[in-house]
């Protein structure tokens, strides 16, 4: 436990927010190379399972130069999101495509391509050359080589990924140029690494379902999640008042959390347990009686969420985007029939799939403009000097079952190219 | 039990569908009267409770002539719907207004007015003159007297009620002329009695949520409910295919039910239990694979309904309009987030409140044009010769807890004016 803490703590925010970039060399030819590393590393799984069981580290041969329309990138930072945990567990609908990552010492050329639709060359035989899955749905990467016919992207540019399950828990990837979106380095490395999933989710949750104006109230659970903290900030920027619910914790931690969310702009923060006391319900009804909440954002589900329904006004929307409690959500028929409650889901991947590239870019640009506070996080570096065996062990130890730091913070992975 | 059956059985469909009307005398003056009965009777409750506990019969003084803008009506037939049961139980949001129905032998004039907004004169003192509630949300009535300034309604016309909780479980009522809608006698007495709640509900359920075209599939539970049978017929008229779910019953009854629903136009009828066998799911998926169902109509809720969700395609709507199981509905987050399932409610009362009178009339006219088969039903007559005591006892006995006939059929009440 203490070593886990130490290994996470030793990589502080200072590291996380380093935004210096190596200038790189601007290259157009697909065969050109930039201080090329001799190998890369990825975190992979072969079978579904718990994060701290299924993950291992895998060193693989340096990327070949990108073909036409493709680019090589060095992944700088990639978060561990709850959905990544679900992907490894096998309970998420999207799954990375299987890949064959050839070890650096094996023969033959590697026609490496990233997950998500493109063909993947399967290599027969050879120890350690079987198929693996590389998790990681978002991150920030730096372009290291550009294939023929690619416009609008240069070596040194920062990009985020525009298609699901690109496999970002790796030091390098080769991707289609149209599957990445250039981002401004001003955004900062941490923000950029977590740009494409949580902030646009928070933004969409607040604008796609119920028209909200200044002074309106909304309710959310899991309010201290990364998404929850972003919702608080965006709402506060717009004068929308938030009733935030979190799990109860030891008193001091609780006070610190309430204070932290308040500083981000939370109007009120309560624990689910506190709602068992009906006087709190009455108090909230009193507070909100001129504008009863018409939006409940849910990433928890389970009985606590059902309890929140009575805070809602007529014709409200319950928008579910997660189910951290792993329990279903029970809806009383009366709320739906007589009080017009509509319950629906939101999935950022579906939104991306349904919107044109221009709209996606506009969404990300809007996110950057909002200048949101990064959620609390820790960076875990998979160090160049570690063997695959050591790297795997340390990652499993650090991520545990939940993929969060011992302090409950979001973990960002920085996978370094291994020294081989 | 057998006497209950007998008393219900003795009043057959033949009785129920008698449509002959007494021509009546056309009267304009509010003071005029038509072969006026000396008293009326209502089924009433004073405290919420089970139907077979809370209900009693109450003879009350003959209506005074209707004032300006009002009409007196004789209620011909009024159904016992599940929502009426819930009203008596006190678990329904709409509740009739309290009324004071003066006994025929007490002094003073009775300023009787019907529930639902109009002021009700409260009479102090006097045994048996306390406040009561008259249940009954729909029914067909015949106009017996017309107040000044009422146009478009004549004595002898049939009307249905255009506002909620008019208290139709009575032999006579006085209502605002704008709170009734004239219906064509061609509709038939039983159809007219059940015109304003179930058939428009079935029609709205099929047209307000998912655009449906010929060949599409829908799923419904409680398929043998009155609403369910209407849904089957309307769907069949439009070439929409229905997957109907019912509770399992003893084999012969089951076969008879499947046959009956089939004759109405049901494409397939299954029991909830049968779905426990995954091969049925596979079979249905196979059947519907070119047009996976996008509409699930739910009046049952509870775990059986959650089980039906896996029959739905992408972006489906689950529309709840009842919860006969009295259990909440558990929604798996994945269905909402990844499969775009939207869960909402439908309430006919809210629809009426949100639509203008013209639209309501158009809806009822459309219902009549559909020429739908009446759901299976039995008529229970509260006979003129019975004392209030006997009438109350027999009603409680006949309706039981559920308000259905021993054969599970819908009960229609015909409350006769008592002989006093
Ligand atoms: N639908 C979409 O498109 C979309 C997009 C982004 C995220 N999400 C989902 O949104 C959720 C939050 O993501 P995130 O990245 O913001 O997560 P995060 O920062 O890792 O935070 C996780 C949150 O879940 C709470 N939690 C964990 N287990 C819980 C339990 N058993 N009961 C109640 N709360 C529990 C945590 O509360 P404690 O601090 O009390 O442990 C914390 O608030 C996840 O379910 C994720 O999959 C969905
Ligand atoms: N929202 C609205 O505006 C609106 C309008 C009209 C009706 N409704 C609702 O729609 C529902 C049906 O009304 P209706 O007049 O058509 O009813 P009905 O003809 O009296 O039929 C009742 C139905 O409920 C089923 N049922 C009873 N208890 C059940 C249980 N524990 N589990 C599963 N099924 C059960 C019965 O099945 P069995 O034959 O197996 O007992 C039957 O199919 C009611 O809930 C009513 O309140 C709502």
TrEMBL record, chains A, B:
The record's top EC class is: oxidoreductase
Q: Which organism is it from?
A: Rhodofomes roseus
Keyword Lipid metabolism recorded: yes
Task: List locations, semicolon-separated.
Answer: Mitochondrion
Is Heme among this UniProt entry's keywords?
Answer: no
Q: What phylogenetic lineage does the species belong to? A: Eukaryota, Fungi, Dikarya, Basidiomycota, Agaricomycotina
Ranges for domain Enoyl reductase (ER) come to 50-413
| Catalyzed chemical reaction(s) | a 2,3-saturated acyl-[ACP] + NADP(+) = a (2E)-enoyl-[ACP] + NADPH + H(+)
SMART domains reported for this sequence: PKS_ER (SM00829)
Region (Disordered) location: 1-20, 94-130
Keywords noted in UniProt:
Fatty acid biosynthesis, Fatty acid metabolism, Lipid biosynthesis, Lipid metabolism, Mitochondrion, NADP, Oxidoreductase, Transit peptide
The UniProt entry's sequence similarity note says: Belongs to the zinc-containing alcohol dehydrogenase family. Quinone oxidoreductase subfamily.
What are the EC numbers? 1.3.1.104
- Name listed for the protein in its UniProt record: enoyl-[acyl-carrier-protein] reductase
